Amino acid sequence: MAASAAVMGAGALTACGGGSGGGGGDSKTLNITLANHVWTDLITKKISEFEDETGITVVVSQLSEDQLVDNYKVKLNAGSEDIDVMMYRPLQVGKLFGQSGYLQDISDRVADAGDWNWDDFQKGPVELTTYEDQTVGVPLITESEMVYYRKDLLEAAGLEAPTTMEELENAAKTIKEDNPGTAGIVMRSQASAAVTQFSGFLYSHGGTWIDDSGNSAIDSPEAKEAYAYYGGLLHDYGPDQMSTDMSWPEASAIFAQGNAGFWIDASSLYQNVYDPEKSKVADQVGFAAFPAGPDGSKPYNVAAWALAINSQSPNKDNAWEFIRWATSPEMTLEIQKAGVPSARTSVWEDPAGTESYPEELATAIAKNAENGVGYDRPRVNGVAQAREIVGGPIVAAITGEDSDAAADEASTQFQELLEGEE
């Protein structure tokens, strides 16, 4: 090999260049920008195989998430050609990058990829890597909304793992009443942080963030019911000294210390309560798919990261060959066996793909994927601002305030944000 995958700083990309050859893939040097992530660590160890198979030299720039965002802002805005393949976060920048024209439409490529099998990718993650009916990315890593529960407490109460929100509330109430000092349930309570976990409750109540006309929908009857339900769980059955400043580390710690019957959060966080070195109740942790609300079970099932082709790349054919190789069924299975959850249905159906996961967890993740929604926050450019706004009624409900009025007020603010982005 002339030059195996080199991990270089951001400045090295310009020097390497993307080569010529336009979309015809004439350049034999491929420039790839990846985030610091366990998926990246695994794939970079395999890149020499791709180089040997194709004769293409791959140059990798591996950056922290903050560096990655800054790098893209500068280079993509300038129309740079020296990034061919880019790893990006669809939840954070998908709409912005789509509007800005940074992401190449690969709809025809994924449709014509034969046994690479685009249909194998789960609906939720695919939804998130689609912009205005164009496929612009291939999902890499997924997470969904998981119910964690104490097997011993449910068994003592004579209860099964809840499959509906009515059952969840009843179980949380029973555990709280039967175990003084133990919360029935713990979840995120800080406005912005709680938005992602609240999303599944919103969808399962028949609500959404933005309606089909592009207007705020967080003041709908369904959304108000969801706000009241989520906040009510924590108000009535949460920890005795209920804080409204909890994100996942605080909530998971309460559960891991044995001080709550249920914890609902991302599937990717399971080791924080399942690892005996981190959790006092590790041997009693159960996993369940997201419970059904009035509109069914609709948890988020999102693509945390994806691969895309820079629309300005002169090396699009080779860029696609890399993406196709890195996300092939075989490579995806190998990486998932190392503990990185993927967006392919087939690897969750393959026993080899789930052998590194607790059996209950793998079953719940696969179940969540069936009706999972591909976004866990409003799909806007100003994600951080939107989360603060739409998270306000969650806090109001937790503290026993009028969450309906809070939803009306938040909807007015959210509508102003949406109109400002038009």
TrEMBL record:
<dbReference type="InterPro" id="IPR050490">
    <property type="entry name" value="Bact_solute-bd_prot1"/>
</dbReference>
<protein>
    <submittedName>
        <fullName>ABC transporter substrate-binding protein</fullName>
    </submittedName>
</protein>
<dbReference type="InterPro" id="IPR006059">
    <property type="entry name" value="SBP"/>
</dbReference>
<dbReference type="Pfam" id="PF01547">
    <property type="entry name" value="SBP_bac_1"/>
</dbReference>
<feature type="region of interest" description="Disordered">
    <location>
        <begin position="401"/>
        <end position="422"/>
    </location>
</feature>
